[in-house]
Amino acid sequence: MILVRKQMADQGVKVPVMTMITGPSYREFVDASGPLATNVTTASWWHPAVRYISNDVFKSSENYTKVFRAKYNEDPDYTNATGSAVGVVLQQAIESTGTLDRDKVRVALAAGKFQTFFAPIAFSPQGYATSYTPPIFLVQGGKPVVLYPKEIKQADFALGVN
Known about the structure:
This protein has helices at 2-10, 27-33, 61-72, 78-97, 102-111; strands spanning 18-19, 40-43, 114-115, 120-121, 136-140, 143-148. By secondary structure, it is α+β, with helices and mostly antiparallel strands. It has 2 domains: 2-44 and 135-152, no CATH class; 61-121, no CATH class.
């Protein structure tokens, strides 16, 4: 995505806004693209910019990001956060049942309604997470800001100068 964005600029291709999948959700994209990252949108399952308050071990998205940065000296991406969220949900299900009995834990998981740093999480009867909306971002001022969903929105859509 970095190369695509730079080649567009080299070829004189100018667009007021563009959407790229995955790339712009990483700090490396913004850092490597510089001003060319401005007005690029993306959606991601999770991003350090989200701000959920939770009742899990991390207490919030912001704290999860802080703890992750302290341990690994880099920002967590959505794959890191997804893996952590799986552990958090399983922990909450086990704690709510007070047992490691698989059938009881499965019932607790199916009941859902987990308030996590990742987002509120609940599952469909087939086991799909259905309770949260992946955030949509726009790179503004050299950083991705959340445009949607409204519960964690950080900015309005506005075109910057690049």
